[in-house]
Amino acid sequence: MLRSMTGFGRCEEVIEGFSIQVQIKSVNHRYSDFTIKTPRFYTFLEDKLRTLAMNSIARGKVEILLNLEKQASDDKVITLDRSAAEGYMNALRLLTEYGLKDDLTLSSMTDFHDIFRIEYKETDEAHLSELVAGVFQKALEEFSQMRCTEGARLEQSLRQHLSALLHEVEAVEIRSPQCVEAYRQRLRTKLQEVLSETSVDENRILTEAALFADKTAVDEETVRLRSHIAAFETAMQTQQPIGKKLDFIVQEMNREANTIGSKGNDMEIAAHVVEMKSIIEKIREQIQNIE
């Protein structure tokens, strides 16, 4: 089963006072490349997310975005700095000696912000990491489903291309022996024209035709090309990432097509080779997006 390197998944949940949103998106890439973005106070989650991603995604340029907010306020503890408050009160009482009339009130004391201390409860990083991992897995499921859906579409298209390529191979296999026979007939006709009053040496014609057949034979190339097509179809059934393997097989297909083109020595075979190379190029373009 093929998996595309293009995918997108997103999940958002509110758990235990945390609003957690995870977004995963990827595009094709020659290797694996992960970018993790987290809020400034939660960078300790990057390694966890990277490990989870690498366990499930073998190839592609992947971006993971984490948005995390603490909604509840029970993690804040506000305390009074008594020493600082008493210091301000004593100083204000001294100011009354200069004839200031304003009374000392509670509201006036709140203007002195440093008499209050705001302390935050420590975050249980291990527990929060597990909460985020749960949301990540749900986003990953959506992400993986999209990649599988796109992979199935690619597989269907690739099978159509392989069928068309096999049709061209069969056409070359039929045409190749016809070329030898056509060459033998042309050679006989030419010799008869030159040696109009002398009998044509059939053995010489057969020898020349055999040499031509040996020079232009593409049997080995078509057999190998058939083998590559079969190997490609088999590889598509595996559950493992096979994008690089398919790329190698396509290179071998192209090599055999080029050899057939150089040995064919026939306009009809040349036309089939052009079509082969066009199909192989379409296959090559599509497998660039396969994991």
Count of strand segments: 6
Which outline best applies?
Answer: rod-shaped
Integer count of domains = 3
How many H/I helices? 8
Strands side by side in the biggest sheet:
1-2-4-3
Name the average pLDDT: 85
Q: What integer value in Å does the Rg equal? A: 38 Å
The SSE order reads EEEHEEHHEHHHHH
Biggest β-sheet strands, sense, barrel: 4 strands, mixed
The unreliable regions are: none
Distance between the ends:
11 Å
What fraction, in percent, of the residue positions are helical?
55-70%
Name the beta content range: 15-25%
Give me the secondary-structure category.
alpha+beta
Cofactor: a divalent metal cation
Family: Belongs to the YicC/YloC family.
Protein name: YicC family protein
GO molecular function: hydrolase activity; RNA endonuclease activity
Could you please describe the fold and organization of this structure?
The protein is of the alpha+beta class. The protein has three domains: 7-73 and 125-147, Ribosomal Protein S5, domain 2 (2-Layer Sandwich), CATH 3.30.230; 76-120, no CATH class; 152-287, no CATH class. The protein is 60% helix and 16% strand. It is built from eight helices and six strands; from the N terminus they run E-E-E-H-E-E-H-H-E-H-H-H-H-H. The strands form two sheets. A four-stranded mixed β-sheet has the order 1-2-4-3. Strands 5-6 form a two-stranded antiparallel ribbon. Helix 4 packs antiparallel against helix 5 (202-216), helix 4 packs antiparallel against helix 8 (267-287) and helix 7 runs antiparallel to helix 8 (267-287). The protein is rod-shaped, with a radius of gyration of 38 Å. The relative contact order is 0.14.
